[in-house]
Amino acid sequence: MGLERRRTAARRAAAGLAALTGLLAVAAGARVAQGGLRSEGGPAGGRGGTPAPEVTGAPGATTAAGAATAAGRPYTDRHEEYMRAAIEMGKLQPSNPYGAVIVNTTTGEVVCRGVNNHANNPTFHGEMQAINDCARTWPQLKGDGAKAEWAKLVLYTTAEPCPMCMAAIEWCGMPHMYYGTGLWELEKMGLHQIDVESRYISSKKNFGTPCQITGGILSDITNKMFEASKNHTANHRHNCLEHGHARPEGLLEELPRD
Ligand SMILES: [Zn+2]
User: Rounded to the nearest whole angstrom, what is the distance from the C-alpha of residue 194 to the centroid of ligand 1?
Assistant: First the structure.
């Protein structure tokens, strides 16, 4: 289906999700994920083929975690809900189900979304798409107050960010990042990755406070999604969003199918 038609459909399907509309307009491709809660911390680089079972962040890192949102419920009580939103984004791109959402910890709202769209630009990873979605649509993220505004946002992604995306998260100054499937798990599946852990990137930051990182959220779901992507990729070597092959569930269900 044509991009314009898909864009119109997305507006209808995601009523109230203005950010998604913007995403589809620019990209037609971003990414999502989710899994059981597991935090990761400890020395950067230690993978060892087993899931890291704790959460963490760099010492002294601060986050809005625990702060009540405008709705009266801390966003930290809603990790799985946010990861499911990221997974919905990932479903848009079955061959590369890397989806991401950005949450405003003050209001508890998902404010920006992204999904992998490498076919249009190799740097259009889900996290980059979500970040660009926010930068494009939020005037307050520009100018003198930008740093304080970014500090209110946290990112959820279906898979551990690559070095490019993790560096972007650090440049933005988001205090916490949550992912589903870990890098080592993606590598074990044989998926193309750059073997540098997100925590290692954060540990190399020489300014500000490193982002706290928590992995394994709904990873039982995201792991299956990435496993399934291998078959999809083998059978359909193209950009699913571009060709309208995505079979959306939830918000995607509303998209017209050619
Ligand atoms: Zn990336």
Answer: 9
Within its chain, how far is the Cα of 93 from the centroid? 13
Q: Per this entry, what is the length of the chain? A: 258
CA 181 to centroid of ligand 1, rounded, Å:
13
| Angle (CA) 224 14 106, round 5° | 85
Q: Give residue 235's pLDDT band: very low, low, confident or very high (50, 70, 90).
A: low
Sign of the torsion angle spanned by Cα atoms 231, 81, 62, 220: negative
Strand spans (E) along 32-152: 38-39, 99-104, 109-115
Residue ranges in the chain assigned as alpha helix (H): 3-13, 18-26, 79-90, 126-137, 146-150, 163-172, 183-188, 198-203, 219-235, 240-243
User: Nearest 5°: CA angle at 148, between 170 and 25?
Assistant: 70
Calculate how far, in angstroms, residue 124's C-alpha sits from the geometric centre of ligand 1.
8
Centre of ligand 1 from the C-alpha of residue 235, in Å: 23
| CA nearest to 176, candidates 152, 194, 195 | 152
Rounded to the nearest whole angstrom, what is the distance from the C-alpha of residue 70 to the centroid of ligand 1?
31
pLDDT digit string, tens, across residues 165-192 = 999 999 999 999 999 999 999 999 999 9
Residues with CB under 5 A from ligand 1 (ion): 125, 162, 164-165
